[in-house]
Amino acid sequence: MFENIIKNVSRFINISTGEEKFFTDLLTCQTVPKKTVLLREGEICQFEGYIQKGCLRMYCLDDKGVEVTILFAIEDWWISDIASFQDQVPSKLYIETLEDSEIYILTPATKEKLLQEIPKFERVFRMLVQRNLSTLQNRLVSTIARTASDRYLEFIRVYPTIPQRVAQYYIASYLGVSKEFVSTIRKRLASKGK
Amino acid sequence: MFENIIKNVSRFINISTGEEKFFTDLLTCQTVPKKTVLLREGEICQFEGYIQKGCLRMYCLDDKGVEVTILFAIEDWWISDIASFQDQVPSKLYIETLEDSEIYILTPATKEKLLQEIPKFERVFRMLVQRNLSTLQNRLVSTIARTASDRYLEFIRVYPTIPQRVAQYYIASYLGVSKEFVSTIRKRLASKGK
DNA sequence: CGCGGGTTTGATGATGCTCAAGCCCGGTGG
DNA sequence: CCACCGGGCTTGAGCATCATCAAACCCGCG
């Protein structure tokens, strides 16, 4: 049941069998149907979730109310609005499932307990945030410096399974282009040899 | 001498006078002239620095070798390539001074000592990374969803002192537009009232 | 006085948006 | 079994934004 998440945190720290149990006992498993909104703007994020199964996305609304997708998250990823979760302040983000999903949840209380009991988990969460930061830095540079077409190719290269799982207009809102333009990009790529 | 940095970390944790001393004893002060490169691509980042005085920027090169500014950092900011610093892997980034600067430096060794001796500093660094992450998220959304003109206005609103301190083409490379276009943006804003 | 880094200006063209229409396809009800 | 419906994808015309290139300009400084 918990092999995946154990393997996930074991990339950063070594944990004993006893610690494993303490950790997994703190988790609550949540089964969430497709198209469920887990967090919306103005709410305070009460979870930090590990995705055992499924697909979610995090997004926000721009000035004109248009959705901008911050990230897609699939199996073996963590998802949360960490700023809202940490400081218990209202979020500016939305998190929703795109498929039926199973998520292991830490709440502020259980995360606190975990860090009290096994302080080396600090390292896990710091690494997760840092990894996030690096990814986001790369994406910013990509967004600034490359054409939409290049970003599309990069996306399907780095996340080859996601285009098969989510609607194309979500990818558009991730790449920062209109859904129509993703369509023309695909057409051009298809004609130009593949 | 160390009032500023003490005040900075005190936003996140309370520290005793003894802890203050332990902390500041670990810092080495570095005086760096303008236009000095502190980190370049391929090197391993050996510092996490608090800026006591001066102005720096972090940037990387895109596919075509064009500079993309990731951030400007002035008094009371921290700067490092945290991914390279943490994992001791080669950096993809550059960090350079734009003015004569004074920086308080933690090395991997002294940071390690600090966290061993006063574990609550874990919190400080986690908060710094998280704050970075939120800022970067906002900027990504801005870059995707707003026009260059809006981003320029946002920039001078959020960082009013920076345009006075750095050349305009650095700001262009931060906003993700050509230096010429920043010029036309300014002209338009100047004519349209304001 | 001339030099050099930084900024401005203008012409031309690519990139990507908006709007409007049509298409494809799976699901649902008659 | 078929007709219809609706969500998602495609297509195309016209337009805004922004890049590129080349030239001129500004100003502090040796």
Defining key terms:
homodimer, 194 residues, alpha+beta, Jelly Rolls, four-stranded antiparallel sheet, 9 helices, 8 strands, DNA-binding
Structural account:
The structure is a homodimer of 194-residue chains. Chain A is an alpha+beta fold. Chain A has a domain at 3-118: Jelly Rolls. Helices cover 49% and strands 21% of the residues of chain A. Chain A contains 9 helices and 8 strands. Chain A has helices spanning 3-10, 17-26, 82-87, 108-117, 121-145, 148-158, 162-165, 168-175, 179-191; strands at residues 28-32, 37-39, 48-53, 55-61, 67-74, 78-79, 94-97, 101-106. In chain A, the strands form 2 sheets. Chain A has a 4-stranded antiparallel β-sheet with strand order 1-8-3-6. In chain A, a hairpin with a 5-residue loop joins strand 4 and strand 5 (67-74). In chain A, helix 8 (168-175) crosses helix 9. Chain A is globular. The termini of chain A are far apart. The model of chain A has no long low-confidence stretch (mean pLDDT 94). Chain A binds chain B through residues 60, 62-64, 66, 68, 70, 82-83, 86, 119, 122, 125-127, 129-130, 132-134, 136-137, 139-141, 143-146, 176, and chain B through 60, 62-64, 66, 68, 70, 82-83, 86, 119, 122, 125-127, 129-134, 136-137, 139-141, 143-146, 176. The first copy, chain A, binds a DNA duplex (30 and 30 nucleotides) through helix 9.
